[in-house]
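Posting for a labmate who doesn't have an account.
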Amino acid sequence: MFDNLMVELGPWAWWLLGLALLAAELIVPGVFLVWIGLGAIVVGALSLLFWDNAFWVWQLQGLVFAAASVIAILIGRRYLYNNNQVTDEPFLNQRSASLVGRTATLDQPITEGRGRIRLNDTYWTVNGPDLPIGTRVKVVSSNGRELTVEPV
């Protein structure tokens, strides 16, 4: 069946597969099908060159497709992960990390190393030395949902 499809569509079968994968990338979240689609388009371009040659059988085309897809994935990952752009809000999705350096007043005393402060409209659990209510503290670090504070 695959042999017949390859003979009927010729080198355009790879182009169609590549375009279908690129279109599927618009529907499926993530940036993964793009690289496989580019691998299919590369094989389509090579098929236009080598279609009449005896060595360009569908098995070799499949191997070239797999290799081209892996190479495209590796190049794409390198590009995406090394293309860190400087932003004016580096802690946009790291709410607790954005609080480091802020000062607040204790709403509950820190006893046995734990207490609470209010920053903006949120109450935060804090760790630090034992301190009474009303003490001004500074956030020195964050660990997920807990902040570490020290007296100002």
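Reply:
Got it, the structure tokens are right above this. The beta strands are 103-111, 114-119, 122-127, 136-143, 146-151.
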